[in-house]
Amino acid sequence: MTTRPELLAAQATAWAWLGRPGVWWTGEERVAIVAKTRHAATCALCRARKQAAIPAAVLGTHDTISTLPAPAIEAIHRIRTDSGRLGETWYRRLIGPDLTEGHYVELVAIVAITVAIDSFREGIGLAALDLPLPMPGLPTRTPPPGTKPGLAWMPVLFPQDWAPPTPDLYRTLPGPPERGRGHIHHALSLGPEAMIAWWDMFEPMYLRSAEMRDFTREFRAISHAQIEMLAARTAALNQCIY
Amino acid sequence: MNGDPTSGIPAGGILSNFAEAILANDDSLAQSRSAVVAALGEAAMIDAAAVVAGFNGITRIADATGIPLEPAKAEETESWRATLGIDAFIDLKS
Predict the structure, then answer these.
(1) Could you tell me if B13 lies within 8 Å of chain A, comparing CB atoms?
(2) What are the residues whose beta carbons fall under 8 Å from the beta carbon of A67, sequence distance 6 or more?
(3) What ipTM was estimated for this complex?
(4) Which of A123, A188, A226 has its CB closest to that of B53?
């Protein structure tokens, strides 16, 4: 099977990033989040909640052997198994001393990268990757300056509020900015490194912004129309309204 | 579109089935994968899997951060979101 080298390289880079210390989690904790993301797919409580009209009405504990804090376990399991029914009330209950908004955003990126890479490999018939190697080091615990509340559940860093030394999350330099046109580009901006890791992996799987709007040629072995149909179908199956 | 998002898309039904099989990750996946390869070729199957997998991740980012649809996009898609029942998902959030 011949896979686009750019696709595999982007996924390998993202997978290695998962094992490195982040802004809020250590490398070991981040690898534990990857493992929990995979494990959540078979959690009995998650299966029961998925079937329930009101997920929170089903009491119990998640199947887990992890040392991650309880709010993180709940976040991983719900994002992995029932993301379409997450609401702000659920989010506000989770956030606290054991799971700050910074921890949460980095966790969301880790879960999403794990789901995307695992789904891709399952899709084309390849075995799942081994867990990333956890790298030593401490989280920097430095949130970006200039974030503002109001757009998402957590504060976001808008392109006009970005400045060095915060990593160039919108690819503003040398210009014009390559990211930041859609709200979805802002979703992980409280964690610039996490946002960069996600989009650097995602764009080779889908399309870059400029490619999305360029209908003069096709950039993949399937057409723009086929790509957008697949994207819409996947979003609908996941009950995503974005 | 007549309410069918695959209508008018070459091999739309086959690709839609492939998306469903990837998300379900069940016994139908191998057959769906083969159907895409037979209809469109291996490179198309790989690119289709990449789109589905990428959106299987990004939908989680959108839903787990509460990021809203852009106002212009919400207006443009109002009628077909209602037709497809997508707005009903909002009522299920808790």
Answers:
(1) no
(2) A32
(3) 0.94
(4) A123
